[in-house]
Amino acid sequence: MKIGNPADKTAGTAPVATTRTQPGEAAKAQEVAAQTTDPSAKVELSNTAATLMSTDASSDFDAEKVARIAQAISDGKFEIDADKIADRLIANAHEVLGKAQH
Fold it and tell me: Where are the domains of the chain?
């Protein structure tokens, strides 16, 4: 699993702000947002998001593997190799940092 890639971020897009409202405040928040929202606001998806939306997610899903792992966890037989996980995290970090420097 890879975590983000700075090269996938599209220049000129703004982060989406999120807020939490208490019950009953949602309607008021929507009203305020409707009054302050610029109708010409533009939203763009990152390259990664666009790719994820256009790919067939079922092609990457192995239901049998998930069932085997779930059963191993239930049986207490699932083993985690912390060294292997650490090695892959470090390799991914090197890959991301290497791409960011180019």
Answer: 19-101
CB-count exposure of residue 21 (10 Å: 0-12, 13-18, 19+): exposed
Q: Could you tell me the two tokens for 75?
A: 């049986």
pTM: 0.33
pLDDT (tens, 9 = 90+) of the chain, 102 residues, equals: 556 555 555 444 455 555 554 556 666 666 666 666 666 778 888 888 888 777 665 567 889 999 999 999 999 999 999 999 999 999 999 999 987 765
Query: Per the structure block, which two tokens stand in for 100?
Result: 């960011």
User: How far out from the chain centre does Cα 4 lie?
Assistant: 8
